[in-house]
Amino acid sequence: MSWIALIDSTRHTDTAHPGLLVAGLSLLERAVRLAKVSGCERAIIAASPARRVAIETLANAIDFDIEVAVFETESSALSDLLLQAAARDAALARGDASLLVLRSTTVYDRGLIHTKELDAADQSAQLRPILSTLDGDPAHLLEIPAPLVSQWLTRARETGFEALSDVTRAGSVDVRASQKWQAAVSDLPSAKAAEDRLWNSCRKDIDGIISRLLNRSISLAISRRIAHTGIHPNHISVVTFSLGIIAAVCAAMGGYTWFVLAGIAYQTNSVVDGVDGELARIKYEFSLLGEWLDTLSDDFKDVLFYGGLGIGAWRTAEFPIDSLGPETWLWLGGISVAGKLVSMVAYYTWLIANKRGDLLAFEWSFETKSESESTALTRAMSNFKYLTKNDFIVFFAMMMAFFAALPYFLFIVAPGQFFIAMSVMIQRIQGSKSKVSS
């Protein structure tokens, strides 16, 4: 089903005006972009007479692949806004589109919105509008499935309801308690609080230990500085890949100084790599292309670094085993590269088949088991995966460079990449078997 967003912009104050920037986007554009990534094809914006011109100017400047229209209203009552929006949109009036109601004066956790869930729901089942609650209070949004829109327009016309708190008295509603959040913006302090909450949402439970303690704080500081500029996530992916090339070239030069520079560039790449995801999350600039650019940049950075390190060690370092010559470093670099390429092929075929571009989407069986189904082995595998995340490995490589031991990093990644490649292949085979058996 198609979705239309009704954005209530009648509640702005002079301080928290529609153009107020919060994490790089105006309040109005943030609401419109949220509507788009939630599946809405059009956004209808309700504006007060005093702000209609300003809101139209802001709306016309939004370039985010969503149709935007503005109407003027002197009422902020929810029932009036619904009726006036329906009067301006034929699909909505006919009940041919679902409706997402939200406010441009509120910053939302995207997880509050259930449009995709409603799209996937069995249409023969009894559908109800969804009203989320936060600590018992209604969230500033309402989701009405298309089959119910005409019915709710009739209720709005006959009985009316002033606010979201009145919706439950107007008809049957699916009221859901949520652990997500929203932040109402009425002045500069509340805007700052909403912005802080947005940035803090970029910290993930799946972050590795170095990301938690170091990388994420630095990348968030960078993201905060550039969020208001024209820099987009794909630009950052180009920067991170360039840093990967620099790290590989430095490693290939060999010698202590070049190895240290390689380690620093490698770690800098790891830090900056978080920026593209943060910008995409904060500014709703998600795309399959962006996911693939980030994934390819991450993987080929490792491929180039392993190869460069093998060359640099061959050029400048003696192999520690007397019976083996310096060319053994090349073999170790080659094994590391080969293992990485094998795992990349296995990952990428899965991503392509599932129309995804982010490696975090790859499903490991030990991660999908419930707590009751987990075993000592699955828990050990999960802990091993956490401790060997890329952020830790890259930081460890930099520290080895400082201690004049970077070539020995290949003793870790050569068998490590082989182990990862075999694990991914086994997981793919197990996944294929489970699909056949089901």
Task: Tell me about this structure.
- This protein is α/β, with parallel strands linked by helices and 438 residues long.
- It folds into two domains: 2-184, Spore Coat Polysaccharide Biosynthesis Protein SpsA, Chain A, CATH 3.90.550.10; 202-437, CDP-alcohol phosphotransferase transmembrane (TM) domain (Four Helix Bundle (Hemerythrin (Met), subunit A), Up-down Bundle).
- It is built from 17 helices and twelve strands.
- It has a five-stranded mixed sheet with strand order 5-4-1-6-10, with helices on both faces. It has a three-stranded mixed sheet with strand order 9-8-11, with no helix packed on it. Strands 2-3 form a two-stranded antiparallel sheet.
- Helix 9 packs across helix 11 and helix 12 (288-316) runs antiparallel to helix 13.
- The two termini are 29 Å apart.
- The mean pLDDT is 88.
- Pfam families: CDP-OH_P_transf (PF01066).
- Belongs to the CDP-alcohol phosphatidyltransferase class-I family.
Properties at a glance:
438 residues; 12 strands; 3-stranded mixed beta sheet; 58% helix; single chain; Spore Coat Polysaccharide Biosynthesis Protein SpsA, Chain A
Outline of the structure:
One of its GO terms (cellular component) is membrane. This protein is α/β, with parallel strands linked by helices and 438 residues long.
Low-confidence stretches: none
Query: How can the largest sheet be summarized?
Result: 5 strands, mixed
Q: Tally of extended strands?
A: 12
**Which CATH class of the largest domain applies here?**
Mainly Alpha
The pLDDT mean sits at: 88
Q: What is the H level of CATH, i.e. the homologous superfamily of the largest domain?
A: CDP-alcohol phosphotransferase transmembrane (TM) domain
